[in-house]
Each structure stands twice: as C-alpha cells, then as structure tokens.
User: Which sequence fits this backbone?
C-alpha cells in the first residue's frame, strides 16, 4: 500500500510536468501533496485513528485530489501572468478570482463523505476511517492551495516558453497541438449541440439512453453483487469429517493420510493441522472428535496462475478419492477471516420437521445452480444417541420423580460442579460424574441406579425403555422458533448473483403455514450495507445541492451541476462490467465518491459561464467560452486523479483485490464525466436559462437596495410617533 502511495505521487508529478511545461510550476502544485498528507496525520491522531488498510487506502486514492485545488489555482494565476501582470499581482488576482470555485469543489467533496462518517452500523464502522481521512486531507489541500501555492508563485513564478530545439520541447509542442485539436473538437460538438432546440434534445436523449444502458448492465446480470469484494489471501481450510461415532484416534489417522498426500503437492508450502475441532466454532472440543482441519498455505506464484478458490475446489475433489469414508470440505479465507458460509439461508418453521423439509428442498435447488459449492444443512439427521423413554406411572409407583431421575442422569453422564475447592483466593470447580468405564455402553445406561424414598435401589431399565437412536446434529432457533439453515460456498460467481437465482427458484415451492425464510451470512450484511450506502448516496446528493444553493444563492443553478452526476455512473458501471468487478460496499463507496469528484467539473464550467454572462456575454457565447477556457484545468485535474488511482487499480498482493474495484469505479466514472460533462452540462444550462427567461420573475432582487428602501419608509413613521 505504501508503494502504491509513492507511485501515485510520482505519476501525478509526471502529469503535472506534462501539462504545466515547467518543473517550477509542477513543483508548486506537488507541494500540496506532502503538506496535506503529513498534516493529515495530525488529524488522524486527534481522532484516535491508526495507519491501517482503510486510512492508507484513503491516502493513496486522495493523492490526485490533493493537487486538484492547486492545479486550478496555478492554472488561473498562469492565465493572469499571460495577460501581462507581474507575478505578485497575478498570484493575488488569480487566487481571488478562482477562490469561490475552488471552495465550492472542495466543500462538495467533503460533504459527500459526511453522511457515512456520521452513520452507524457495520458498513459505517468499516468505512469511517476512510471517509474521515479523505475529508481531512481535502480540507487541508484547500488551505494549502490558497496560502502556500500563491505565495510560492508570487516569489518564484515566471512565464516559461518551451523551446522546439530540445527533444522534450518538441514532445511538449506536439502534446500541445494535440490538446488544441481535442479542445477544438469538443468545442465543435458543443456548438452543434447548442445550435437549436432539436440538437439540444438529441444530445440529452443520447445521454439518457447511455445512462439507462449502463443501468441495464446490472439488471441483466453483467455486474454481480456481493457484500465484500473477493480477496485471494492464498490460504484456505481443508476440513475432514468422519462418522459421528468415530474416535479421535480414527480421525487422527485419516488426517495423517491427508497430510501425507498434501505434502507431495508443490502448490502447498505450509500446513497447520488441528484434530478434534473445526474453525466453525459451532461445537465444543469434546463434541468434535470426528472432525479435523488442515490450514493450507498456497504458493504465491501459483495464485497468479490460478485463484485459490479454484485450487481449493479442485483439491476437494482429489481428497474425496483419497480419504474414502470421510466427508471433505474446503473453507476459503478472506480479508475478514474464514468464510464458513458466504451463502446462508435460514428456514423458520412451526416445527423442526417442517423447517427441515423445506430446507432440504431448497438445498436441492441450490445444488443445481452453477457457482454454488459444498451445499449443506446446519442440522442433519444421523447423530448417534441413546433414547430414554420414561414410563411415568411405573416411575411414580417405584417412589421416584422426574426431577430426581433427571438430576441423577445429568450427574452420571455430564457431571455436577456444584461442589467447589478453595485454595487461598482461588476457587476451583469439582466435577463429579461416572468414570468412563461406567458410561461406555447402553448396558451402563440401563444399569444406572437410583435410590427411592424408601431406600430401595431401582435400575433405570425397570421404569424406562432405553434404545439406540439418531437425532439432529444441531437444534437451531431463530426468533424463538425452530429453524434450519442452508449453507454453501461460492466459486466463480458473486454470492449476490447466485442468491438472486436461487431465490427465484425456491420461492416457487409450496410454503407450509408458518414457514418463512431469512437471509444470513454475506447476504444479510449486503442487504444492510447496501441500504446504509443507498441512504448515504441520497444524503450526499442532497448535501451537495444545499452547499451549491448556499454558494450560488440560487435554487436552479445547482440542478445544472447535479446533471453531471449520472454521467459518471455510465463509465463507472461500464468499467465494472469490463473488468469483471461486483457491486459491493467498496465499489458503491467509489460511486458516492464520484459525486463530489465529477461535480467539480460542472461547477468550474457553470461558474465561468456565470462570470461571462455578468460581463455581458450571451448565454451561447458564455458557454462556448467556458468550455474553451475550462477544458484544460478540467482535463488536468481529471487525468491527475485517474493517474493517481492507477497504481491501486493494477496493484497485486494482500488487500489489492479489495481496493481494485474502488479504483476502477472512480477511473471509469471520471473518464466518462470528463467528456460528457463538457457537452451535457452546457446544454442543460442553456435549457434552464431559456426556461428561466420564459417563466422567471426577471432580475434577482437587490437586497441592499431593498433594505435601504425599507429604512427610508420606516423613518417617517418614527417621526410621526415622536410627534
């Protein structure tokens, strides 16, 4: 992660040099990165946060954003220098002129993350340090861009012209000519779009079609859903389950056989074996004599050729042929630990039998869905047990009662710890129960002796029927009702996609009265997380709108800026589909982050157009001028952010899979909004301006004049009262 952070800084510096043509100017903008990052550590310390996976991810992704404000300020100061002003006057005028715009784009990015940082729940707890880190760093970059950057330019800045005599100069001239052609091309498209009402409607229609087409990528299943992004840690558990009555010696022998086979495989570099319990933690150590597990670590080189999930699935098939008579299961390990049941559905019924019946039918349907693996029920029949059926009439006639019989049986086979032993300040339980030789067979149970009220010795078989039987391995309850859960692993497909296909199938079954179902595992977390992030998304859009209302003193202009947000979703969803990423809490966080990042482009266009209109330009001329003047800073800031996130998108190693989707979403959204915003936002601006002229109330009231007028009207009234 630290390497990705350093690489992002280097790449952003190279982009600054390319656009600003000067190491001096590039250095002015790059100052914002170390100053903001180092100062962010102070904020993290005050908040009690640490340098961890989330805070480092935030610092890596925010590198491109940190130079954003500095780029806009430097570019505007440079423009004033080209007007013939000296460097001090250019620094002052340039920073003052662009101050409103820079403040607006920074506040927009900050308020986008505010709802998540203030919310509660699992997702908020995971993402809070990320959001707070971005907010602190962004606010500090605003401070740097208005203080250090103009000061540096006023002291050391100067106009530099590239020379065509050097190789670097020729390269920069070629780059500039290409940039001019691109600017001219975008300007031509905008002029065509603004030429008539028909052209405006056609332009809007094309963007609407593109937006809904991108949404169909989710609806048609090209983009799956999951709670947490897939993460390949190169390790997994191989769990072995013997017959329920197997001894620990038999389980150990079978486990040694598995170890001998695995030690011959070159893909396996290390193993940790535990016999007598499994990592699911559902039973105590004494109750899992028939279970064992091997923690397998896979060679890192092999994980580059084949995902660990695929390797574990293949190995399971192999081990089933080696360990004859035993059940074999593999459990993958993600960033949050062992993924015992990524897919879990709990069936609730009035009785255990009804719940078990429906769960068995649902499990059979799941086994036929591609991508599901190792489908099982949490409660299964076949657990060996001894059934004792008491004849109450015989028991009462022999002078015994249920309480005394139950207590005696519990003491004999489970033990009684009512007696304590004290040694100094410490106290120890004394567990009293039968020796192993006295409770090893069914005959020992039948011969269990009780003393009645008359002092007579009574055997259990005299008043009870003792027999072998089998029962469920687990008695599970949900909401105080009997329940059974269906659990499965997933391979090759997102858990959310498999869950949707499965739900479409099992909802067709006949539900007995009182039978219902609830999702568990990742689907339960996904439902909660997507709900929280959905509310945060709407709250972010609302806060962005309110911030712009306060800045523009206008309720209509912010709507123009908000039209840039759906344009970013087009590229974000397209890149998710192209790079086989899922909709999860991190990619949705990226979409929320895009709201602030892409709104800044629209703010820069709208603000410049408003300035031009205030100077007397027509709406058409103001929009074309804004497109031409703001294309370069918009391109610079967008490319800087994209390049800053490329190392995260292509990173390898632990945690890289988790971060990749977030970076890919932001890159796709920034690229699509870069070009679409330059055309769609001016078109929407023009439409709203035309509607305002037709239905508006005219010029905005002059509040200062109105206050003076009110004062003049009040003075005569005061005079009359005084007389």
Assistant:
């Amino acid at each position: 992660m630290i390497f990705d952070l350093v690489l992002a800084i280097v790449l952003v510096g190279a982009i600054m040099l390319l656009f600003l043509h000067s190491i001096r100017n590039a250095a002015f903008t790059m100052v914002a990165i170390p100053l903001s990052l180092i100062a962010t550590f102070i904020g993290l310390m005050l908040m009690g946060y640490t340098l961890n996976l989330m805070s480092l991810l935030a610092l890596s992704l925010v590198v491109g954003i940190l130079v954003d404000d500095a780029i806009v300020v430097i570019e505007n100061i440079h423009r004033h220098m080209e007007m013939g002003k000296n460097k001090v006057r250019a620094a002052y005028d340039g920073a003052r002129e662009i101050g409103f715009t820079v403040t607006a784009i920074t506040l927009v990015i900050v308020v986008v993350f505010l709802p998540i940082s203030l919310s509660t729940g699992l997702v908020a707890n995971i993402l809070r340090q990320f959001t707070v880190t971005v907010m602190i760093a962004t606010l500090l970059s605003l401070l740097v861009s208005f203080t250090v950057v103009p000061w540096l330019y006023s002291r050391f800045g100067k106009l530099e012209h590239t020379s065509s005599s050097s190789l670097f100069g020729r390269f920069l001239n070629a780059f500039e000519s290409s940039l001019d052609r691109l600017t001219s091309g975008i300007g031509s498209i905008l002029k065509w779009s603004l030429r008539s009402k028909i052209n405006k409607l056609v332009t809007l229609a094309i963007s609407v079609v593109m937006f809904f087409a991108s949404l169909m990528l989710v609806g048609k299943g090209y983009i799956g859903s999951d709670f947490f992004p897939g993460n390949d840690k190169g390790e997994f558990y191989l769990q072995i389950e013997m017959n329920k009555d197997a001894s620990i010696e038999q389980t150990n022998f079978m486990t040694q056989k598995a170890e001998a086979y695995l030690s011959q495989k070159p893909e396996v570099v290390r193993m940790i074996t535990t016999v007598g319990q499994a990592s699911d933690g559902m039973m105590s150590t004494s109750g899992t004599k028939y279970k064992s597990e091997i923690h397998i670590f896979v060679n890192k080189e092999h994980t580059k050729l084949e995902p660990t999930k695929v390797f574990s699935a293949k190995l399971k098939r192999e081990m089933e042929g080696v360990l004859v008579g035993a059940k074999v299961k593999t459990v993958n390990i993600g960033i949050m630990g062992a993924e015992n049941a990524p897919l879990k559905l709990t069936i609730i019924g009035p009785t255990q039998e009804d719940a078990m019946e429906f769960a068995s039918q649902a499990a059979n349907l799941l086994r036929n869905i591609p991508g599901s693996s190792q489908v099982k029920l949490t409660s299964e029949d076949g657990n060996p047990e001894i059934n004792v059926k008491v004849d109450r009439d015989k028991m009462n006639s022999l002078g015994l009662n249920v309480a005394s019989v139950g207590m005696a049986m519990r003491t004999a086979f489970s033990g009684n710890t009512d007696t304590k032993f004290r040694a100094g300040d410490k106290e120890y339980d004394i567990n009293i129960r039968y020796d192993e030789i006295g409770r090893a067979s069914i005959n020992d149970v039948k011969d269990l002796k009780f003393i009645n009220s008359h002092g007579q010795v009574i055997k259990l078989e005299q008043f009870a029927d003792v027999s072998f039987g089998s029962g469920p391995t687990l008695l599970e309850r949900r909401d105080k009702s009997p329940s059974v859960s269906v659990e499965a692993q997933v391979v090759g497909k997102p858990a959310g996609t498999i869950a949707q296909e499965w739900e479409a199938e099992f909802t067709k079954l006949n539900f007995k009265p009182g039978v219902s179902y609830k999702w568990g595992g990742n689907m339960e977390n996904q439902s909660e997380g997507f709900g929280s992030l959905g509310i945060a998304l709407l709250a972010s859009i609302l806060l962005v709108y309110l911030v712009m209302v306060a800045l523009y003193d206008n309720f209509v202009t912010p709507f123009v800026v908000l039209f840039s947000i759906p344009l970013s979703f087009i590229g974000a969803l397209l890149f998710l589909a192209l790079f086989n990423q899922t909709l999860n809490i991190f990619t949705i966080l990226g979409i929320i982050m895009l709201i602030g990042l892409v709104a800044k482009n629209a703010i820069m266009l709208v603000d410049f157009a408003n300035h031009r209109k205030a100077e007397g330009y027509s709406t058409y001329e103001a929009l074309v001028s804004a497109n031409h003047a703001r294309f370069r800073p918009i391109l610079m800031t967008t490319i800087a952010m994209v390049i800053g996130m490329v190392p995260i998108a292509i990173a390898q190693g632990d945690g890289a899979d988790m971060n990749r989707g977030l970076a890919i979403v932001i890159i796709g959204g920034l690229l699509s909004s870069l070009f679409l915003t330059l055309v769609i936002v001016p078109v929407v601006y023009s439409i709203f301006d035309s509607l305002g002229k037709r239905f508006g109330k005219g010029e905005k009231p002059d509040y200062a004049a109105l206050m003076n007028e009110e004062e003049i009207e009040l003075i005569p009234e005061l005079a009359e009262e005084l007389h």
